[in-house]
Specification:
mainly alpha
């Protein structure tokens, strides 16, 4: 199976994940969720819908970050193969071997940095989504 790693729209799945949202009203909901914290004194159903929408958007953003990372990994595999082919052509020339070693080191450092950055983003999304779920719980208790 060849997965194309397709990115999702921000509101993908919103109408199914957030009961009460209408497909036609999704754009309006997405426009309304500018505030960070939900209002505990407003319309609880509306606030719950906003929080639910932010959870869906965050999950889709997290998914998209993973898709982009997977695409980079596929690209990096192609780059590594090119470095390996270059290494095979070098032979025993010390200068060429050193240059290839430097290329491998740069490749490894770039991959490690990108992977570390992706992992940090995933953790940040996890914490953000957990916080939104806590907000959902507070709103449900308030309703």
């Amino acid at each position: 199976m060849d997965d194309k790693f397709v990115l999702r729209e921000a509101g993908y799945g919103l109408e199914f994940a957030c009961p009460g949202s209408q497909a036609s009203g999704i754009a309006g909901i997405l426009d309304q969720i500018k505030s960070v914290a939900p209002s505990m004194t407003g319309n609880m159903a509306e606030e719950q819908l906003k929080v639910c929408a932010r959870i869906v958007m965050a999950q889709n953003s997290q998914y998209n970050e993973s898709v982009m990372m997977l695409k980079r990994l596929v690209q990096r595999n192609t780059e590594l193969e090119a470095i390996e082919r270059q290494r095979a052509r070098v032979g025993t020339k010390q200068g060429a071997l050193a240059a290839n070693d430097n290329e491998v080191k740069r490749f490894t450092a770039r991959n490690a940095m990108e992977m570390s950055h992706w992992e940090a983003k995933m953790k940040a999304y996890d914490v953000y989504i957990a916080g939104l779920k806590d907000d959902q719980t507070l709103l449900a208790k308030r309703a």
